[in-house]
Fold this protein.
Amino acid sequence: MHQYVFVVIGVLMAIAAVRLVTTKNVVHGALYLLMVLAGAAAIFILLLAEFVGWVQVLLYIGAVVVLLLFGLMLTRAPIGRTALDNQSRALAALVAGAIFAMTSMVLVRAFDGQMIDFSQTLTVRTLGGVLFTKYVLPFEVVSVLLLAALVGAVVLAKRDE
Amino acid sequence: MTAFVVVSVIKVFVVFGAVLGTVLFTIWLERKIVARMQSRYGPNRWGPFGLFTSLADGVKLFFKEQVSPRGIDKAAYVAAPVLALIPAFLAFAVIPFGEHVTLFGQTVTLEVTDLNVGLLWVIAMGSLAVYGVVLAGWASGSKYPLLGGIRSSAQMISYEIALSLSLVPVVVWAGTLSLREIVEAQIGTFGTIGWLPGPVQWIGHLIPKWYVVFQLPAFLLFMAAGVAETNRAPFDLPEAETELVAGYHTEYSGIKFAMFFLAEYVHIITISAVAVIMFLGGWDGPHLPFLPWMWPLMNFMGKTFTLVFLFIWLRATLPRIRYDKLMVLGWKGLIPMALGWLVVSATILTVKDAYFG
């Protein structure tokens, strides 16, 4: 059962991901991105990680893509087909392929052969406990990284003034 | 298993119908109350006190011609009202509105499902609501809706942070994200308070254990952010009719407009219901000896409608605030206050656990 659902979600995500990079309309692109992220959330829920799944919906779908749309509309909101192509598809494909290869290699090497215990749901309590004890260092490193990104964005935006 | 499926399907339909009915009633209530506050009569033609006006309006909107302007993005234009309405209704799936009923030998809990991350679900569905507005604004291909959509996305993202942060202290106190467990933690009164001087110890029997008692700042923050999150006056900038005609739904008519309209009122009811669950003890309240299942439901609905009345009252009283003031209030007012209160209440909880058991 899980496998069939996973295959359906995976195929839908793959189609949406391909459409995301081939569509000529940026706003439609954002909507395809939405579908990909929703698929990821569905897979989290399928793996009984309810908390992670709904946080994915809340943060990525409910905030990140909305901000993306907000930015698009604030700068330009083209309706219909517009040329927003800067003709560097080969390079983009290379970079995307490299990232895909690296991420899949890391994931396969990290989790190879491990099974998920479906007999119990991952509770928020366990997740919080693990996050703030065993993985507290990576957690803090990620927060510093996000802070740096935030400061960087402000610096870039303020440079013109 | 079969019984579970049947009961669940029935519950989905009943909750859907109840929410729809409540929404129609709320629309009528709002028109009536606002009219009274402005020394008018309000709707009074259809049914007693004009009670069926919303229904008549609904039928009218359903059969009206749907005008689609030129230059729209067809797919997004059609999808937007649907995307506005669906999350609004979905949020109700985890709202517990009573204890449980025993019908035909089946014990039925009064909610569609008890998700152990229920609160997160409600907030996530609330965060999806912005898509309807943003897509409507963009797909209409016209400047006023676009401005409404931009305003809405910025406003909802900003106030969502304050809204979620104001709920975190309650979650920390209750130690759960399940809405049912949060309500159950608030049932009853404080009882005899030992550390008070003898003659006034009984006063604890009069104070309910609702979180609003100790979490009043969080409650006020939640209501303020909730008004903004539902795009209601005085924070209804996305559809400010003095500046933007009707904002994001300017180019919509007929049933598509009705869907936006319904979604807004469903959100008001959801925010009120969540406030009742998180701060006002849910279905806790007076019980009389007969019809034991009815009183929790009555308590819950009474509290919810009190808050809905508050929303309507605000709309009739306060003028719309300026857009930059709205942003300043959200980012420099509500969010720091919510964060500060979170630190304070977490500290209180830690000290209480450490020294008073």
Observations:
- The radius of gyration of chain B is 22 Å.
- Chain B touches chain A at residues 71-73, 75-76, 115-117, 120-121, 123-124, 126-128, 130-131, 134-135, 137-139, 141, 146, 149-150, 153-154, 156-157, 160, 177 (CB under 8 Å).
- Residues 64-355 of chain B form one domain.
- The mean pLDDT of chain B is 82.
